[in-house]
Specification:
It is flat and about 70 Å long. It is 51% helix and 14% strand. The chain is an alpha+beta fold. Helix 1 (3-56) crosses helix 2 (75-90).
Amino acid sequence: MNKAERQLTFRAYLRRLLQFFFQGLIVLAPIGITIWVVLGLFNFVDDILPNIIHAIAPDLLTKDAAGNLNKIPGLGFIVVIAFVLFVGWISSLFVVGRLVALLDTVLEKTPGIKFIYSSVKDFLEAFAGNKKKFDKPVLVNIDAPDVWRIGFITQDSSHHFTMAEHVTVYVPHSYAISGITYIVPIERIKLLNNVSAADAMKFTVSGGVTDMHESS
């Protein structure tokens, strides 16, 4: 094997190793980021809990040689899960539900705060609340006659803009939490009845690299 062939083989090995590296990165990055965010939340709670417990019951926790309060491993996880369950349960009660609704009304009418509160609330409810909006995936024609984007119908009619024959479509960006809202004629959309909303969102956000599965 001459020098040129050895160099070609070496480069082929490098390309193969680089390919394996990026494949591993694609597999590990989403898992690693998810674990990092979740553990970060639990560690944050673990860090502040000893001070809270010590303020309530000074003799309950011991201190280490440096004088720092000892943590209780896993307590942050239990507290976060219990708190979320408790909020979900108590908010379902009638009286508490009325109080939450009253607080919601106050926040939505408070100047300055109402813009931030309403925007965040509506955005989260669009994904998971009772007012879920991102459940109608479509193809929308915007840029050119034969160019289509994946979006989600959020309003079936734009009559409040005096355009009753237009629909409101939210088009998410790839690898981002942002997107653009379009108001387009109804004839410029195609319903994706054979694709679930979750698959359409994953396909768009991932830049089209995830597999699409037809819904039954």
